[in-house]
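Morning - nicotinamide-adenine-dinucleotide inputs below, output right after.
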Amino acid sequence: MELNRKFIEDMIREQSNMPLEENDAIRRFDACPKIFFGADALDYLLGLPKDKTIVITDPYMVKSGTVAEITSRLAQNRIEHVVFSEVEPDPSIETVAAGLQVIFREKPGTVIALGGGSAIDATKAMLYFCIRLKSGLMEKQYVRRPMFVAIPTTSGTGSEVTSYAVISDRRQGVKIPLRHRSMIPAVAILDPHFTRTLPADMVAYTGMDVLTHAIEAYVSPGGNDFTGMFAVEAAGITLRCLPALHRNAGDSDMREKMYSASTMAGLAFTNSGLGLCHGIAHTLGAQYHIPHGKANAVALPYVILFNAGLGPHRRSGVRARYAQMARKLGMRAADDTELCRMMVLTARILCEQFGIPTSLADCGVPEAAFYGDMAQNIDKILEDACTKANPLEVNREDLRALLDDIYRGVLTVFKK
Ligand SMILES: NC(=O)c1ccc[n+]([C@@H]2O[C@H](COP(=O)([O-])OP(=O)(O)OC[C@H]3O[C@@H](n4cnc5c(N)ncnc54)[C@H](O)[C@@H]3O)[C@@H](O)[C@H]2O)c1
Ligand SMILES: [Fe+2]
């Protein structure tokens, strides 16, 4: 069936702006995908059902021969397959619509997402809107959901286990976080050799994304004992292993550890929610084309400082949760305030160690554009679903002061 592309794009644009996730009265923890990990994990594909399969990925995965590692196994298993390799970083509504057309045309029984968060998120959105469209066209019992396998190549977004997908509306210059349980993959394959080609800056950015997921999940009002356990373990591994992996991308033990940490942080935040740091990263990342993990890394120390109620123009904050996490990570200090400062400094020191800029000015964001965009950026951050899940409510004045600090690199960690 051929569907009109413009019709699909409009549908995605319209529906993305509505809250997708149903509200639950009962608390729950989803640990959905089956996770296959380790050096032989990819051989899971040899046992896939014989249904037609689509591999959704980005152009680098084709060029680097990574897709061939998947398709050769499909061929070995005599599975008919097609490859859609047009996903760009921060996938757009237009890309989701293009992939959705291919899914409608090919009618796959299995869909494999291969790549970083962008390829996996684009696949999630394609599948979500595919089911929505089909449900409008035929009776529910005839709507078949393809089996969804995710193979991450970054460590990472944790997208292989989350109900989130972030797509970009380039017309509006915004990133839209979508959330629906039906987007959680059925299977995640973690074969650490896929991350061996990540350049050092991407190792740092994606690793700082893991740390941000873990910290935001831990302090989130939606957090619980289960999410806390995964968040602390993910943060602990990141603090121990990311610097070594950044120094030596060839260290396969560190690579495997960061891969697990990424998935664990994903399990934490998909069940608890994220927070203001992601609200800021989505907005500034889309506006100034800053990679997602880098935007989080720059903002994280400032957001911890703000949420903990430290610094000159801060009101009271939520210090105890950060302090509790710090203790579980082995930090020791006289009181909660000092522990929060240690968390802020830890995030900041990691940025410096990885050569990540510590201000937006140092990211190359032009001053006139930044201050000219301020009101509009504040609107977008306040609208972002992650900001709404922040443990501390934020208003326009808070955000103006916070963004000003992040732009100029003013981290007043030792002032009352
Ligand atoms: N769904 C979620 O839960 C979630 C969480 C956080 C972020 N995100 C989103 O994920 C996206 C970022 O994903 P990402 O950080 O994984 O990067 P990415 O998928 O955008 O990839 C960035 C670049 O790295 C390349 N790349 C990927 N793997 C590689 C490898 N092994 N070797 C060499 N190059 C490789 C890609 O080809 C691409 O050019 C953003 O759009 C962000 O908003 C989603
Ligand atoms: Fe993230």
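Note: The pocket of nicotinamide-adenine-dinucleotide (ligand 1) is lined by residues 58, 60, 89-90, 115-119, 121, 153-154, 156-159, 162, 164-166, 175, 194-195, 197-198, 202, 206, 209, 292-293 (CB under 6 Å).

O.
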